[in-house]
Amino acid sequence: MGWASWLFAVGGLAIGVGFGILARRLGLLMLFAGVTQARPIVSFALLMAYMLVPMIVMIGGFAVSAGLAVWIAKHFV
What we know:
The protein is mainly α. The protein has helices at 5-35, 40-76.
């Protein structure tokens, strides 16, 4: 199993970096859209989404990474 540890490390790192970039871009998109709104309720909703969406994306990334690692371990190792 030692030979496969690099696969899990590199794969997990790649998935984590990818989801991190996605979460950052979505968060900044919502932040900049929220501060340019004229109506306060729309601005508030976008700023709340700015706080929640990146966390949801990262939790999804953790779930995908864990599920993929379990699937690879069951089928190939």
